[in-house]
Input
Amino acid sequence: MGSTKVVYAVLLIVVIAFSLRLPGLGTFMTADEGNWMIRSSEFWRNLFLNDDPGGTFRTSHPGVMTMWIGGSGIFLQEIRLGFVADESNLEHFRIAATLPIAISTVLLIGVITFLTIRLRGVPTGLTVGLVLATDPYLTGLSQILHLDALLSLFMLSAFLSFLLHWKTRHWRYLILTGVFTGLAMLNKFLPSLWLFVMYGLYMLISNPLPWKARIVSALRKGFFVVGVVGLMFALLWPALLVMRNTVDYLQKDTVTIVTDEHTGLETSEEPITPASFYLRTIVSRTTPFVLILWAAMVVVQARYILANRRLNNSAWVIVYTVGFVALITFVAKKGDRYALPALVGMMFTIGEGLPLAWALLRTRLRVLHTSFAAYGAYGVLALLLVLQLITWTPYAIAYSNQLFDV
Output
């Protein structure tokens, strides 16, 4: 495939994604954002003004990438205005905090588009990028200073890089796997551990070598990824260089997240919300388009697995999605946005499925064999997806599937 064609495809998705994230940017604030704005400000000031790397530490998440990215805008705005962000003046820092997050998520969607093109070709890459760029709930979470949009896109980028390494055997993609895994873990430690489970399962199941060789290969690649992750931690989390009890904090906070429910839950009067919480989240936060086509792709992949007795990469992304939902279901702390990595996995799957559906239609209808028909179909799809998002602008974060209101 021509490199120019790939560049144009990625740029097209980046332009669409950025254009759709600008309307309403900074016009609303969620409950947690004030805390993250102040934390991000303190992160930059402690690192660059106060000579206090230990002051960059935050427990629980640890939210490092959110503070690096969002804090960059806040720090520059503080220099421009001559005063620091605090609870009384956050309105002066909204755009400064959220614009870097929006730009970062747009660039990550561009990265995912590129990786998908390398895996499956330009039509599939364009479709995956378009679905991610126009999804209402992902767009809404890309417009706030928080953790989950970055986390979900880091995680998917890491897994696609891993699949691409397995396809090409190029070590540069394994390095990318470690880089994106590290970025995901720096933002939210506990959910990112799911990536290592997926890497291990894939290497043990998909490797055609004898079992002993599989295990040796998996350990070798696994330690390499862990090494790159460690390098990312050392480079981007200054607190690690001066604090001796960081690991203890992470262990303590992991136990807290697993056992303590989130404050303000209203879905149940029980101490821990029922197992159906994330099933209802998926139904309500995905669009009918994504939900129905994802179910169809699951059926298609199930038939493929039964016929071929193996999992292809599309099936592995479904395993990634379903397994992540199962993982967070057993965690006491619950919230709709915690399911975003799974929702993004679903978007990727249906983005893969649409070109397959188009190819199937072409075998049935001769009129669809022209380039005009292909471009026209893609244009109609793009228009419908954009219109779907615009109806929720500027509050796309409030998206709820009206056809399956649970």
In short: Residues 1 and 86 are 51 Å apart (CA to CA). Residues 94-120 form the longest helix (27 residues). Residues 263-268 have pLDDT under 50 and may be disordered.
